[in-house]
Amino acid sequence: WPAMACRVHAIRTLQREQDAVILAHNYMPPEIYALVGDIRGDSLALAREAAKSEASTIVQAGVHFMAETSKILCPDKRVLIPDTHAGCSLAASISGAQVRALKSRYPNVPVVTYVNTSAEVKAESDICCTSSNALNVVEAIAAEWGVDRVIMLPDEHLARNVAARTPLSILVWQGSCEVHEQFTPAQIGAIRRRHPGVQVLAHPECPTSVLDAADFSGSTAALERWVDDHRPEQVLLLTECSMSDNLISRHPQIEFVRSCTLCPHMQRITLDGILDSLAFGHHEVHVDESVAVRARRAIEAMLALPE
Ligand code: 13P
Ligand code: SF4
């Protein structure tokens, strides 16, 4: 494909011809996020906004579970992902059969599942959660079922971070994000010594010890809002580092202290891949309707809760 400016032009032209909308996750590199993303945000916001869009095709600039979520919420649209190998260590950590086994072992315990999972896993769950609403979801489903125990899948750290803030007993799975599990409190200490006054923001997929040492934690959308609202002089985002690149263009006066930690799965999405998606229909995402119906129920149960 031609040089970058021409590729952007070619994407925009094909996009009009194909009646497509491009969803860009907050972890996309700036040339995708800023130049071709029509809707930008965290994983759930992207799918919700896509459902409202008139476009008949969605190109998911993000990882596979996000494309599946878009397909579940927009069953009548064609959903394309530029690289089918754009996976996620959390989504890969558990299968539908493993959730079924847990449910038969703990029959009266509700299953709360993080959106970073396959459609098959969502379909086996009672309700989904995001990193922003996990505590509310866990407490709401426990109250609805009249129980004091909840199974929370599949992120061990997100589950422990919720467990630290509720009297409920949380049954944890051993999944983790290969990016966020790398951060440590020692790293935060070293950065605070070099940059006194730096504000440290952490995604809840980080270990509890990291959240304890941070100033704020939240989903990628919540971290972005915090930076927009507080405009600190210096900030460290303990999350995928493309997010700092994307925020720098909006906040050139803020110093983004960096630890460059990239998600290898997100990095598989490129301008060339998006061009191939639009030109050749690479690669259509399908979710079996019998799975989609049950996965949609779990997502909608979450959306029905007050924010
Ligand atoms: P958000 O839903 O917060 O955007 O997170 C998605 C993700 O993959 C975090 O690693
Ligand atoms: Fe999955 Fe972690 Fe990559 Fe997010 S950053 S897509 S949770 S591996």
From TrEMBL:
<keyword id="KW-0808">Transferase</keyword>
<dbReference type="GO" id="GO:0046872">
    <property type="term" value="F:metal ion binding"/>
</dbReference>
<keyword id="KW-0408">Iron</keyword>
<keyword id="KW-0662">Pyridine nucleotide biosynthesis</keyword>
<dbReference type="GO" id="GO:0008987">
    <property type="term" value="F:quinolinate synthetase A activity"/>
</dbReference>
<dbReference type="GO" id="GO:0034628">
    <property type="term" value="P:'de novo' NAD+ biosynthetic process from L-aspartate"/>
</dbReference>
<keyword id="KW-0411">Iron-sulfur</keyword>
<keyword id="KW-0479">Metal-binding</keyword>
<protein>
    <recommendedName>
        <fullName>Quinolinate synthase</fullName>
        <ecNumber>2.5.1.72</ecNumber>
    </recommendedName>
</protein>
<keyword id="KW-0004">4Fe-4S</keyword>
<dbReference type="GO" id="GO:0051539">
    <property type="term" value="F:4 iron, 4 sulfur cluster binding"/>
</dbReference>
<comment type="pathway">
    <text>Cofactor biosynthesis; NAD(+) biosynthesis; quinolinate from iminoaspartate: step 1/1.</text>
</comment>
<dbReference type="GO" id="GO:0005829">
    <property type="term" value="C:cytosol"/>
</dbReference>
